[in-house]
Design brief:
With 353 residues, this protein is mainly alpha-helical. 65% of the residues lie in helices and 0% in strands. Helix 9 packs parallel to helix 12.
């Protein structure tokens, strides 16, 4: 038969005969051997400021290697078409839940960057950004706008990854890894297909991200050197995925258009400095081309006082992009005669205003 419980007075009388150490031992045994509810009650008394507040369970640590392995599997399946075709590796139910899987993996990769050994998490986040960039051109998922659906902001993820790399390994290591990523990831009009919506409004260019990270002239020179080295290592005509229907000229022109804001920043930072030779490497690089490259050449020539070369380059650029407002403004400012189509467009715009 169970013993009757003592009342409050009887219990305190029993405690009166115990010294401080005996009381601590009794309380410890109760805490250690008691139920979870008993432990919570004792802890609430040990921390009076949190009394009455529900305890939040401790966050489960995220294993960076496990996240990386999951991300690699997810990215591999997506690229193979498993999420849009009848592939046994992905069930019909999971095909429709790809966006929540993408969001979960992205969140876990971010958390895992705080782990003691975070390199696999950084690799996982890089893989997700690569995939996000590709979804502008490839139908990996059944969605009109995959990154809007997944609520994934590429520029925010890149800023987090680059900041982590710089803070953990120093600027040189950051520049060496971020420069080739800039070449792969930058997108002139963002990473959502429609260009509008909540995610699109949160996006910034990667050039703008770097502009906030490169705070003194010396680091601009260092990063520019790594950027040109990254272009040197990029295979001509390659944009990260095989696109046989696109010519090398088209890919070079698209790459230069995507990176136009970054190139304009380099021009402003490096012109008339001891590192200006980097700009000569830039404007002659075999991986760049198209009207945006001619526009860059025109501005550099104008900066150097070569009016004839500046006029020739901007004319060539406007022959291919006669409606480009910045090019039109530049040509007017340096008094260069406009090609016929550019003249017509400019007159039409002036009439409307």
């Amino acid at each position: 038969m169970a013993m009757n419980r003592m009342n409050r007075t009887e219990f305190f009388d029993k405690l009166a005969g115990l010294d401080e150490q005996q009381l601590k031992t009794a309380l410890w045994n109760l805490y250690w051997r008691g139920t979870a509810a008993v432990r919570e009650r004792i802890e609430s008394q040990l921390h009076p400021s949190s009394a009455g507040q529900p305890r939040r369970p401790a966050a489960t640590p995220v294993d960076p290697r496990s996240v990386r392995d999951e991300v690699i599997q997810f990215v591999t399946l997506a690229r193979s078409g498993a999420y849009i075709a009848g592939d046994r590796r992905v069930s019909p139910r999971h095909r429709t839940r790809w966006r929540s899987e993408f969001a979960r993996l992205a969140a876990e990769a971010r958390k895992a960057l705080r782990a003691p050994e975070p390199d696999p998490a950084a690799e996982a986040l890089e893989q997700l950004i690569d995939l996000a960039r590709e979804t502008r051109d490839y139908d990996y998922f059944r969605s009109e706008d995959p990154m809007e659906a997944a609520r994934f902001v590429v520029s925010e993820a890149a800023a987090l990854l680059w900041g982590h790399r710089r803070d953990r390994y120093g600027f040189t290591a950051f520049a060496a890894s971020a420069a080739p990523q800039l070449v792969r990831w930058e997108s002139r009009y963002g990473w959502t297909r429609r260009g509008y919506g909540q995610i699109s409004q949160k996006e910034t260019s990667l050039a703008a991200v770097l502009n906030g990270m490169l705070t003194v002239p010396d680091v601009w020179v260092t990063f520019a050197g790594h950027y040109l080295d990254a272009l040197d290592r990029t295979v001509a005509g390659d944009n990260g995925r095989d696109q046989p229907w696109r010519s090398g000229d088209h890919v070079r022109a698209q790459r230069t258009a995507d990176l136009a804001e970054w190139h304009a920043m380099l021009l402003r930072r490096l012109a008339d400095t001891e590192a200006e030779d980097l700009l000569d490497r830039l404007i002659e690089h075999r991986l760049l081309g198209g009207p945006e490259l001619d526009f860059l050449r025109a501005r550099l020539a104008h900066q150097r006082g070569d009016a004839a070369a500046a006029g020739a380059f901007i004319t060539a650029a406007l022959d291919r992009l006669p409606g480009h407002q910045e090019m039109l403004d530049f040509a007017v400012n340096i008094n260069t005669p406009l090609p016929a189509r550019a003249q017509k467009i400019l007159k039409g715009r002036s009439y409307r205003t």
